[in-house]
């Protein structure tokens, strides 16, 4: 019990100045902003007013210095406060880069090609169309893009690139509505697209079916098979434009055989 009493006696014998030197130094915390105490009388509204006045004095200088890196260029506020004439074409590109801003503007997007498949019980028709453009901008237009073509021919609007039916592959009369005829037509059409150089022009393609004939399933098989491997990756949409009659006028009397 003598040790605690001796330590208290030793502590009371040290003067106040020596005791301050023996105490550990206080910890200092790093701060990037000045400290405001309640006694200073600074309110939130006053601090917000000081910040807005600093921005108003230097609108073109952004406080973006971090270490050895300093961001150059106009600040975000200077872009918003710039009183330039409004241009609708630059509306989507004002705060975005050209590579990503154009994705939000539908006017600058590439319009797709379309493959129309009209399948009836008597025949199958395949039509490949492109967005309307002059013949001079269509490399697949043979004879029109040459130097010998007239100016009127070069300005001619071209939208239909191919229009084929089962009669183009040698089928006649009742054979034109068969499954085999539609299959050979689809394979022949895809071969013509590659040979005429149309495949290089196609970036995106939509397939539109119409009718419930045998050619509907035949064209689908060709697209999913070996013949359609080069076009299959460009298809972005598959639609159906079959016309269904709900009510309407009386249909023709069905033909009865036998």
Describe this structure in words.
The protein is α/β, with parallel strands linked by helices. Among the domains are: 75-109, no CATH class; 111-240, Ribosomal protein S11/S14 (Nucleotidyltransferase, domain 5). It has helices spanning 2-13, 16-22, 44-57, 76-81, 98-101, 151-154, 179-195, 214-224, 229-232, and strands spanning 65-66, 69-70, 113-119, 124-134, 157-165, 205-210, 235-240. The strands form 2 sheets. A 5-stranded mixed sheet has the order 5-4-3-6-7. Strands 1-2 form a two-stranded antiparallel ribbon. α7 packs across α8 (214-224). It is elongated and about 130 Å long. One of its GO terms (molecular function) is structural constituent of ribosome. Belongs to the universal ribosomal protein uS11 family. Its main location: mitochondrion. It is found in: Mitochondrion.
How would you concisely characterize the structure shown here?
It is found in: Mitochondrion. Helix content is about 30%, strand content about 15%. By secondary structure, the chain is of the alpha/beta class.
CATH superfamily of the domain at 111-240: Ribosomal protein S11/S14
Tell me how many strands there are.
Answer: 7
- CATH level 1 name of the domain at 111-240: Alpha Beta
For the largest beta-sheet, the strand count, sense and barrel status come to:
5 strands, mixed
Query: What would you call the shape?
Result: elongated
Going by helix content, strand content and strand pairing, the class is alpha/beta
Strand content: 15-25%
Classify the helix fraction into a percent range. Answer: 25-40%
Radius of gyration: 39 Å
